[in-house]
Structure formats: structure tokens, C-alpha cells
Amino acid sequence: MRYDILLFEALAFAVLFTGMVFLPVKDLEAPSNIHNYPPDIQEEYFKTHKRVDVSYRSKKVLLKKGIGILLFTVILAVCARLAGAHTFREGFFVGLLLMVFIGCYDTFFIDWVLFANLKCFRLPGTEHMDRAYHQKWFHLKGILWPGILFALIVGVLTGIGCLV
């Protein structure tokens, strides 16, 4: 296993992930994006906008998460192979490691720094809710659950991808 390649891949994955986060900024109000906001921001937003299902049981949210899992699996399976993974265990390790890395990067940088401070992430009607946008515990809970579940799923699928 080439750990130098793995380090480069982690950095490249962070750049790619950041781009994926900024793409939906043009469509923040899509139900599949609103579910990423803390409940009090959602409530304030829905006072002036039509209420839609933004739970994890929503078809749009499930579809977005499912596509994300498949996309990450493909990306990380390629990363695992480039890093020298040839067994399920090695592929699982690479997939899980990179997903945990990106989960930490997302929580501690994207959510706690960018999301909390950049006005482009504010939903219409919630621009005044500075404290609500700085809720660290909400984002930390997200990486713990369901973030760990997503990481495990991608890890398993990446491991299987290394067998193919």
C-alpha cells in the first residue's frame, strides 16, 4: 500500500468534495439541501416558504445520499487501486479512511468555518440567524450518525470494488 499516494488522494478528494459542496449553492432551497441545515433554521425558513419533507425518509434526500454513496464508491475504489489495494480488507481500509477524513474535513472546515460564516449558504429569510449557523454540535452529530454509517457502506463497497 502506498501511503504517499493515499495522502495525495485525500487532498484531491477534499478539493473535489469542496467543489461538490459549492455546486448546490445555486439551489440551496432544494429539499435535498435543506435537510443539511439545523432544525431551527429549517423552521424559520418554512415560516415563509412552502413546507416540504426534508427528512432522511424523503425520496429526494434518499436519492441524493444514494447517488453520493455510489459516486464516492467509484472515486474511492479508483483511489484504493491507485494506492495499491488488491484485497477486500485493503479496499475497505482505504474507503473507510478516506470517508472518515472527508467527514472530519466537512465537519470541522466546511460546516464549522465556511457554512457558519459565508453568507452564500444562508437560506432566504434566515440571514439574521448568525447563532443558528454556528451550531457545532448539530454538525458533529451528523458525522457521528449517519456519517459513520455512510463511511462504513462506502468502505464495504470500495472493498468489494477492489475484488473486481
Which percent range fits the helix content?
over 70%
Poorly predicted runs are: none
The total of helices stands at 8
Whole-Å distance between the termini? Answer: 18 Å
How large, in whole angstroms, is the Cα Rg?
A: 17 Å
- Which structural class fits the helix and strand makeup? mainly alpha
Oligomer: single chain
Tell me the strand percentage band.
under 5%
Provide the domain count.
1
Shape: elongated
SSE order in H/E notation? Answer: HHHHHHHH
Number of strands: 0
> Please, what is the average pLDDT?
93
Major sheet details? none
Which properties best describe this structure?
164 residues, 8 helices, 0% strand
Q: Nutshell version of this structure?
A:
The chain is built from 8 helices and no strands. With 164 residues, the chain is mostly helical.
What does the model show?
Helices cover 72% and strands 0% of the residues. By secondary structure, the chain is mostly helical. It has one domain. It is elongated. 28% of the residues are buried.
List the helices and strands and how they pair.
Blueprint: H1 3-22, H2 31-34, H3 39-48, H4 59-82, H5 88-117, H6 130-133, H7 136-144, H8 147-163
